[in-house]
Amino acid sequence: GCEPVRFEDTLETFLDPNSQLYQEFVPFGSVFPTADGIIVNTWGHMEPKTLKSLQDPKLLGRIAGVPVYPIGPLSRPVDPSKTNHPVLDWLNKQPDESVLYISFGSGGSLSAKQLTELAWGLEMSQQRFVWVVRPPVDGSACSAYFSANSGEIRDGTPDYLPEGFVSRTHERGF
């Protein structure tokens, strides 16, 4: 089934039945069985255990009580033999299973401070990485979709990352 979630990775408010967030989520879960199905933004090869658990009537499927439909990936398949991209060339030169992939999705919104902290953490870790980084959004969550901030670039580093980050990590990061 699903990977266990450690207590410290949850929101305390979910344990308090009097909290506003808890009160908003309880009705949300109770309407699942009234739906014709649940659409999940993933696909079988990416999260096979989780999908199996959501679809299995002996596991989480008994809670949903309706079919679960994975709808990803939402892009056309690419013939790898016809793809020439610098990140693929770089990845092919790295040892197997040695590269972290960091992406917060199309709606992932990090503040400038969070981006800076993540950049410093990646640099200090000396870990190989591919980071799909977007300009920071310091405002509402929807600003991730509507932000026009592209960031000035100096020495190959966008202004929303620590100065010199790209040049210092160019052999380990992409």
From TrEMBL:
Signal peptide: none annotated. Gene3D superfamilies: Glycogen Phosphorylase B. Keywords: Glycosyltransferase, Transferase. The keyword Isomerase does not apply. One of its GO terms (molecular function) is coniferyl-alcohol glucosyltransferase activity. PANTHER family: UDP-GLYCOSYLTRANSFERASE 72E1. This is At3g50740-like protein.
